[in-house]
Amino acid sequence: MKMNNVQKMVAGLSVLLCAAATNIQATEYDHEVQDKKILFAWKVAGETLAVKLTAETEGWVGIGFNPASEMKGANFILGYVKDGEVKLDDDYGSDAYAHKSDTKIGGTSDVTLVGGTETGGTTTIEFTIPLDSGDKNDAKIDVNGDTTVLLAYGTSRDSFLAKHKYRTALKVNLSSGASEKME
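Structure (tokenized):
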């Protein structure tokens, strides 16, 4: 009988801990912007930017920071989830309509995976990047000024080679959370 009470108590504590963890995760980001079927949430933590991307796709989701023109010059982070494993790529906008892996063009991969899921037709990836990576392919991100943010997601194919299904450009102040659509 005592064993059953102990088991009930452990089960009850487990439920409370799970609820607390879910609540902490839900309030983890300070700001968010939703455009159509993609959500960008973020938090500036010292010299790091924590990012959460969620889109209605079973393919990749991605974000680019501060392109010079179209996609050229942007620091891109793309990710997808396949068989429960998150794949991330740190890319550079090599021209107006293309990007290449930083490591293949002399740069470094400066993204740190936090997690990711793919459930019910929705993909979410979470990662951090430094505001100033020192990588020649990454422009410094000024959180107090306007940052051009490119958001996109692909079709239902888990491949970084699949073209985007949707894309948009926003002007965002990462410190205040103010944003406006550029397109």
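The two ends are 66 Å apart (CA to CA). The chain is about 15% helix and 50% strand.
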